[in-house]
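BUG: 3D viewer hangs when loading the predicted structure for this chain

Environment: internal workstation, default settings.
Expected: structure renders.
Actual: progress bar stalls at 90%.

Input used:
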Amino acid sequence: MSLTATRPDAPPAAVAAAPEVLDLATRARADGTQFILALFVDLTGKPCAKLVPVEAVEELQTEGVGFAGYAVGAMGQEPKDPDLIAIPDPASYMAVPFIRPGLAIVHCDPHVEGRPWPYAPRVILKEQLARAAELNLDLKVGAEVEYFLVERGPDGTLRPADPKDTAERPCYDARGLTRMYEHLTEVSRAINSLGWGNYANDHEDGNGQFEQNFGYADALTTADRVVTLRYLLSVLAEQRGMTATFMGKPFTDRTGSGLHMHLSLWRDGAPVFPDAGDPRGLGLSSLAYSFLAGLIEHACGLQAVLAPTVNAYKRTGATGTRSGATWSPRAASYGGNDRTHLLRVPDGNRVELRGGDGSANPYLAAAAALAAGLDGVRRGLDPGDPGATTSSPLPPTLLHAIEALEADPVVAGALDVAGPGVAAYFAGLKREEFFEWHGQVTSWEVDRYVTAF
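Structure tokens produced before the viewer hung:
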């Protein structure tokens, strides 16, 4: 929720230049790395990896490492299909000795029979970025990763890991921050050792909820960092006997966790969103307004990617919390520095997309948002005036969002950008998830109906 999240006021030079990419073997040996996690995620965002000893790094670099694709999870494969081969991207390599001495991570692009696998989220984003490059446009993304630190009570229910975190309005509470000082500072040091530029760590609006901000970068780098940060947070929290959860709404009466994305387009190294002469007063160019209009037009289908679980719609559909605000959009509207909108424009440098929650796959979220925005640019769409009351309500459930995705060729096309069938497969998985949940008899139903008739 940081007001200055992603450092929007930073000049172009503040965007860190990519380090010179050495070959994987050279970098690993220079760092004293002993083992490398060759990592990728499936369509649901599940992190999958093999642990490769440095003695096999040349083989990893030249041949990749194999996985039984069906066993991985949601990757569009059946048991009979050929192996997924994870090909490492040396530019994504990072040493993480704060997790384990001698450990490093490298993000990978899954291939099948020598070709990039179209169901792989990182492959999808790279292909969508290539489409933007055809327009001489680059997407920069900043991400706000919100999460809860929890534990299970004796009865199995979730509760904040800090038993003293009980205030009705805990947001920014200095005491709550201090009680979690060891965890938060360990994460901050880890982020900074990786060169991400951690600039703020805060207690969010829910009891047990936190956010740790880092600088924006190109879309692929930021997506890699979100995946990495979730892994780091999970492991470091476990080491302290806690669980870090990115579930959108773990508590009925408390604020949910978002994955807010700050989006900006660049051309030839310069931002194309700002325009000091904007007659609407938000400091945006006509291209930025068209991009924003594309996001609004495709918002309902986009929600299936930004909020891809049953639980996510208990966040966006919430009507109140203990703190008095949900901080979750309910309609496809935009405005200035106003967090009640799906699209917040805090300044002319960026647009904040607030529909995503902690369950969003960052690669798919960035790819789908980029496709929606570029559709607006190609068609020269206009979003109307800020805060328009004609805004469309967002889908109330995952099922509604999936139906909107299937009816939206632009958002579905974003998932199919590297090959056909991905959108239909994703929709099928999520429809099955919805009806599996819908088929469960819950305590709410028992309490409400068992003696009602």
